[in-house]
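We modelled the chain as a single entity of 155 amino acids. Its sequence is:
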Amino acid sequence: APAPPTPPAGAWLKGTVFSVDSGDTLTLVGPPRAGGPPLKKTVTLANLSAPRLVRAGRLGGRATVLGGARSRDPIPLDLSSHLLLPSIGRRDGSTPDEPHAFAAREFLRRLAAGKAATFRVEGAADGGRARGAVVLEPGAVDAALEVVRAGYAKV
């Protein structure tokens, strides 16, 4: 399938906030496309910095739930590739979350998750993500301004 056309640099695009990765990074999803899933774009809010969360990792392990054929029979589950839990630093304590990182992410998640948004990519950020601006609807709320106003990020 041919790649979708690339919008001009600095063009405003429409999407919905799919997830919030940290206090300054959101993943947006576009409208459905013919012949494929909607496009996703991870955008780090430009010109600000929020505390960093340690990346969560996949946890291996097995669990048992009740609910087999006789509703009390145990069913073993392998969760090694399906469970992604929040991390609170590495287990050895060598790289903990920065102070207030979880609160910053939760603030932005409550503000933006599931909302319609207009966004513009302004350049590249670390890790291959896009750096740009995100304006939330309704009310044309600038996500970066609100995070800074709440004290969870610095310019």
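As a brief sanity check on the tokenised model: The longest strand covers residues 12-22. Residues 140 and 149 are 15 Å apart (CA to CA).
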